[in-house]
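Table S7 (text form). Paired inputs.
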Amino acid sequence: MRSNSSHQFEEGLPFAVYTVGTEMQASITRLEGFSANQLFLTFSGKGKLRLLGQDKWDIINPGTLL
């Protein structure tokens, strides 16, 4: 698994930090997915998410886990 974390995780832990985003991002469409499984945890701020095939955008608020 790729990670940008220098922390050594306990053997067998099923996830690792891949990246942390703090900047504004333009909308992205990933027709073939992403190279890693993703878990989003929002501490502050908010954003919009639309799953492929959906017309409606969901608002992701602070304290959201997706």
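Next pair, protein 2 of 2.
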Amino acid sequence: MNSVEAGRARVLTELIAASHLMTLEQLPGTVASHAAGVGWPQVLIYLADLQQVRLCLLHGSIDVSADVPAELSVEGTVAGRAFQLGKALPASASAKGQWWVPLLDGTERLGVLRVGVPGAQVEADEDLNTLAGLVALLLVSKRDTSDSYSQLVRRRRMEVSAEMEWQLMPPRTFATDRVLISAIMEPAYQVSGDVFDYALTGETVHLSVFDAMGHDTAAGLTANLALAAARNHRRQGADLLQTAEGVGEILTEQFAGNRYATGILADLHLATGMLTWTNYGHHPPVVIRGNRTVVHLSCSPAPPMGTGLDRPGILRRDKLEPRDRLLLYTDGITEARNREGQEFGLHGLTDFLIRHHADDLPVPETLRRLIGHHLEHHHGRLNDDATVMLVEWHGPTPYRPGQLQALAGLPPSTAPETVSSAWAQQPADDDP
């Protein structure tokens, strides 16, 4: 290890030590002062807003020059391109010493770092990605106790129902060696009745989407209660039908049948691709196979959860094929009509995803563009919540690191061969 490498390793260690008593507002200045001494001048942190259309400078206690923009567009800028693709990019062809580096918490996109100034000597090497990775971890560790973070990434007033929703949501993007999950939800500041969820238990991925009755604060309460009840039952070992019945009982007890939620609950077994699922008054999932064929799944729906009707759900099992993309969605994405009365439709949803898959964009970026297209189709105004969750199962064998990087928008260092090979050594279990 040479002196530069040793210095950078020491700085990373010092940042971790300093982080224990650090506030979010102190993070930009602390990172910049430590990084400057080891060849990383003027490190600036830009965070993506809630709808991922702007990148906003986290000032904190740091002094920046007047020519440093407070905001940048995700569209049409180098910084935005680095965010979209998950790649470190030079600020311009003539400014190789200034770089935009993606900030990622796992596979969740947070924003970008700007490192360097015009004329500086900064190389986009492994250490730069490591610095960005550490900054991302520090951001995530501080944001839940900082209103400054929320105020920065919000561009307008948020409804109380949406406040509840976003506090419960898991990260919008998640990946392991054999599955990638990405979701998006609009209208971001007014969403009330939609929620999505996922979690892993061993070889099983639990998936769910709920759509509560109404478009008001009560719908938000219903959706939050449904999601919390589902998690509670699932974590106590309940199966899908027991979980759905438990959700229904909780909603009925609380609202006496006056509030209900439709939903899909599913388990995906990673070793075999067996999808087990049940439908409670919701639109059934679809599968995009081979990026050209749409497979419609079917299951006789039970009544929505919370109605108090004693009709049990039915379990359906479907075998996914490697590289299948499973779509769970709410009717706000398919049934909403624009001013001309044109419905976006399920065909519009699947057609968009099939066409844009050929662009080799990361899945989170494809969904970001999907929701932008959907909003444009409806002239920027949605009358119902619109949620899409895309789940790609790679198959019983792991992704190659390069595949996962392209799908999730990861820099090369974040998916080492050792992760893939460790999974590959595990025996497959044929029993879902």
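The CA atoms of residues 161 and 218 lie 8 Å apart.
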